[in-house]
User: Fold this.
Amino acid sequence: MSEQQAPTADLGLLELAELVLTESGYSVFYDTVDGEAVLLAENQDNIAAVAAPVAIDGLIDVHPSVSRLLSTRVAEAGPASKRWDTFAVLLCAQGAAREQTEALANITNNLRQVRRLVRVEVEPTKAALSRALRPLLPLPEPPHYGALREPLKELENLLRADGIEQDLITSVLTDFALGLGRDESSDDGSKEDDER
Assistant:
């Protein structure tokens, strides 16, 4: 009986990376490297191969194959590919041990053929993936200064965009508002009492 090997790709991180990149105008599709899923993303400026091993050792092992895949993809595109910046993106939810940091720094500092973005301790949230993929994303729109926005409504929108459940958001904001009311009312008379 053959033993099945557990997947070493973090499919949750790859799916969130797909969501963030798609929302930013990238065309995305999956390929495989060393038998594991890798996300390829292209727009008019960039091409990226995103790998998300579940362990740091897997990240260190897979990076040469991801870089080769990306280099091959760019070479196949011919002269038109010269307009692209190329990125090998290596994501991992696991933190790096002290003995792994030198290898990760060497990967990051290797600028041959493609740029390498190494991100460890990436939380599986849309916001965390947006931060990890920031070099690939278009610049955000500048704030509009016409009308002032209500800060609690803005916080609610950010939390909802980050995937937090609406019930939890409403509960926390309600508790905050009630707490704010108690603080304001205690400030009215307590200072006079303290001075006496």
Q: What stands out?
A: The longest strand covers residues 85-92. Confidence is low (pLDDT under 50) at residues 181-196. The radius of gyration is 23 Å.
